[in-house]
Amino acid sequence: MHEFSFSIPQDILVGRGTVEKLAAAAKKIGGTHAFIISGPHLTKMGHVKHCADLMAKEGIPSDIFSQTEGNPSVETVAKAAEAFRASGADFIVAFGGGSPMDVAKAVAVVAKYGGSITEYEGGGKVPGDIIPLIAIPTTAGTGSEVTAFSVITDHARNYKLTVFSYKLIPRYAILDADFLTTAPASVAAACGIDAMVHAIESYISRAASPFSDAMAEKALELIGKNIRRYVANRADVEAAEAMLTGSLFAGIAFSWARLGDVHAMSHPVSAYFNVPHGVANAILLPTIMDFNALTDNGKYRKIYNYVSPTPAAADFEPIELVSLLRELNAELGIPASLKEAGVTAEKFDAMADDAMKSGNIAVNPRATTKKDVLALYQKAL
Ligand SMILES: [Zn+2]
Questions:
Q1: Which of 57, 129, 249, 296 has the most crowded Cβ, counting Cβ within 10 A?
Q2: Is it the case that residue 1 has pLDDT exceeding 80?
Q3: Residues 27, 233: contact at Cβ < 8 Å?
Q4: Neighbours of ion ligand 1 (CB under 5 A)
Q5: Is residue 150 pLDDT above 80, yes or no?
Q6: What would the pLDDT profile of 110-147 be if each residue is shown by its tens digit?
Q7: Both 193 and 292 in a single domain?
Q8: Which of 161, 179, 197 is the last residue of a domain?
Q9: If you measure from the C-alpha of residue 349 to the centroid of ligand 1, how many angstroms do you get, rounded to a whole number?
Q10: Cα 271–272–275 angle (5° rounding)?
């Protein structure tokens, strides 16, 4: 066993209706004036105003930035950071799916240390503590409420840049499944598979440890048992809560064990073709699990047993997991190929170069070259 370390430097609150404790959470982190970062949908539904009202009742005023988009951009971060500075707020509430979380983390860096988020790309560039964050995820999910990453799209180079620092972990996370019950089926499927990919990639990662394995296994159990049920009926709060908790555990797992080729290769797919993150991951997953099967040391069977409605047979072969994941995609309405998602081959060379820059390639269980990445893109097409 190699050396490993972990810490979970934050408060996490899970349960239906826990958003009501937002003002108490704000006080606990010393916040006196909130800046809420969210998206247009949650604003229209009145949920953003509800968050602001909850804090106003306790004497905490709020300013709101609600213009985050899918695959959020460097420009959006700059705009939100400017609005944050003008507001006089002293903490940020990140409220929504992965996009508002990514923007909020980036704003919390840029608003404190200046410059553009592009200057903090990579690992270890964040100089110190950031503006305190409270994260309230409304999808299950990116797990972004507990991760050390912010992923922002730089349209100038068609590139999704990653900022990695344990300083990015929100101080407080509130996981209230009531927000999940109105998600469209396609969003529930894409986000749910993304969470499952986080659990799988961190589980088979070269940087996996007994700690991350424990998190990944519990995540796989919760997600495997509930993803079909949740996508079929998002109003099923029990399934929604299991998915939210599963994506939380998966987020903790990959903050420590990193990911792999699926995420390395999916970011360029999203950057060049604006395919939603979860959809890009879901399409690539079976192809890459097939590629990684050579390295299997018994974990494929375990994953199979968490995700399949029926247990693996005595003569289980890793390829059966690949087929199961393909079937799951079809059941959940995920496109079967990159081509179906609107991807064309002419950008593959540039995309492979970008994928190779990802730190996730280095921890993928099977050593991966640019040639491999090109072949995998072609196969997934
Ligand atoms: Zn992801």
A1: 249
A2: no
A3: no
A4: 194
A5: yes
A6: 999 999 999 999 999 999 999 999 999 999 988 999 99
A7: yes
A8: 179
A9: 22
A10: 70
